[in-house]
Amino acid sequence: MTTEILIIDDNPDIRNILNDLISDVGYKTRVAANYNQALSEIDKKLPDVAIIDVKLDKGDNDGIELLNHIKKKNKEVPVIIISGHANIEMAVKSLKSGAFEFIQKPFDETRLMNFVNRAVENVRLKVKNNELESKLFHSYELIGSSQNIEKIKNQIIKLSKTESRIFINGPTGCGKELIARKIHKLSNRNNHPFVILNAALLDVKKYELELFGEERSNGSIVYGSLEKASAGTLLIDEVSEIPLETQSKILRVLIDQKFKRVNGDHDIKVNVRIICSSTKNIKNEISLGNFREDLFHRLNVFQIDVDPLNKRINDISLLIDYFSKKISENYNLKKFTIDSNNHYLINYDWPGNVRELRNLIERIAILAPDSKEKISNIIKESLKNSENDNFITDNSLSVPLKEARENFEKNYLTTQLKKFSGNISKTAKFVGMERSALHRKLKGLGVKDLN
After folding, report:
1. Distance CA 105, CA 325 (A)
2. Directed axis angle between helix 401-419 and helix 435-445, to 10°?
3. Distant-in-sequence, close-in-space partners of 343: CB < 8 Å, separation ≥ 6
């Protein structure tokens, strides 16, 4: 990785000194002599590290403005602020604005280079962490033996051979992004970018900038997601959050297969596969007037519906085994075993779905409990359900024996039905009852069919 450092100072002598110092140790440099040049260089391409003089040609604190501009684009970029008019107030203001370090002119060259090297190391560590997380995410498979997951696995194989637009619907944390990535990875576009635009995280005023990019008055170009994903795949996550005005422009792009950047004059041809996802019921959003029906039909050439985890309980044991092994291997942690028949795991509602289960397993791996009892306690504390606890501690002790027994049977049989995804035959075999007898018992207890 070649690190690029942007040097911004209106004093040519200092620019030259900094440029020589930094180039001599092997870093690539760019320089800017005033505010507008600096703005142009930043917008053209964000540096890995920036060194900025507080006072340039625009005003007393224009260096701080540039610092804020960089942080809005990417808060992870380390910025070293230098000043010939330094005071404590200025230093505090810089650090509060997100400066990595503050140094006063005339600066000690060794001290400055220590700051630069630390900033570069900071960048490299973050890059490595991002690569590790990306590798970890890419290595995950779609795990499950439920009808829903088996169906989706077959859909992924078929859809990866086409160019059809896809709409993935399902609750948060159920694996919508993973499904989109798998389709991209198996497609003919797999050597090109996979870009994610999360519509739920954008400022209302920035949707078009993020999608289409911008041509600025200084000649610089900011590329939008459609161009960044050129020849690849664009996943628009939480597509229902896009404003109606922008929806109409997306529809026009899908029809014409071209668009103009914001403030641009010429057409850009579109060559990108679009996959959308949402946690909301889109048809309901259409009826409420929040989403265009004609756009939905353009995006929803093929729909994938992902069930929540609490509707595919028999996938939990497979997911536990898979994540336990993966997390132990990837983080070089002690191997551990979780009893997937744990009462709390089966009866928990899993509002965060697979993501919540993965986080629980990661928590257990990090805490490294040395016994099954301790693992069970971590699960109990993490997934504690006051309703279930009260059933055991209060209700069972405050009712006659017959009613307590009926409550236990109802709770027990409901749990077993969930474990076998509502399959009466498998449940009957496990609990040691005839199928017809189990049917009668469930009916008598008022337990509804889970299918």
Report:
1. 54
2. 120
3. 388, 415
Residue intervals of the chain classified under CATH 3.40.50.300 are 147-307
Report the CATH number of the 310-384 domain: 1.10.8.60
Q: Count CA atoms closer than 13 A to 77's CA, side-chain side.
A: 24
Which residues, at least 6 apart from 69, have a Cβ–Cβ distance to it below 8 Å?
39, 42
Q: Which amino acid is at 438?
A: L
C-alpha to C-alpha distance for 213 and 206, rounded to whole angstroms: 10
Pinpoint the residues of the chain covered by CATH 1.10.8.60: 310-384
State which CATH number among 3.40.50.2300, 3.30.70.60, 3.30.360.10, 3.30.870.10 fits the domain covering 4-134. Answer: 3.40.50.2300
Q: Is 115 helix (H, G, I), strand (E, B) or coil?
A: helix
pLDDT at 30: 94
User: Which residue is associated with the tokens 């001290």?
Assistant: 111
Per-residue pLDDT tens over the stretch 248-281: 999 999 999 999 999 988 899 999 999 999 999 9
- pTM of the predicted structure, to 2 decimals: 0.61
CB-hemisphere CA count at 13 Å for 108? 4
DSSP secondary structure, 319-385, as one string: HHHHHHHHHHHHTT-------TT-HHHHH---TTHHHHHHHHHHHHHHH--SSHHHHHHHHHHHS--
Question: Could you tell me the two tokens for 301?
Answer: 């050439």
Output the six-digit token pair for 196: 């994610």
Contact 97, 52 (CB under 8 A): no
Tokens representing 325 are 């092994």
Preceding omega of 106 cis (within 30 degrees of 0): yes
Task: Count the Cβ atoms, other than its own, within 10 Å of residue 202.
Answer: 18
**β-strand partners of 303:** 167
**Mean pLDDT value of segment 73-93:** 82
The answer to whether 183 touches 353, Cβ cutoff 8 Å, is: no
pLDDT digits (tens, 9 = 90+) for 349-375: 899 999 999 989 988 888 888 888 888
- CATH level 3 topology of 147-307: Rossmann fold (3.40.50)
What does the alpha-carbon distance between residue 422 and residue 272 come to, in Å, rounded to a whole number? 42
**Is residue 54 classed as helix, strand or coil in its secondary structure?**
coil
Residue type, 263: N
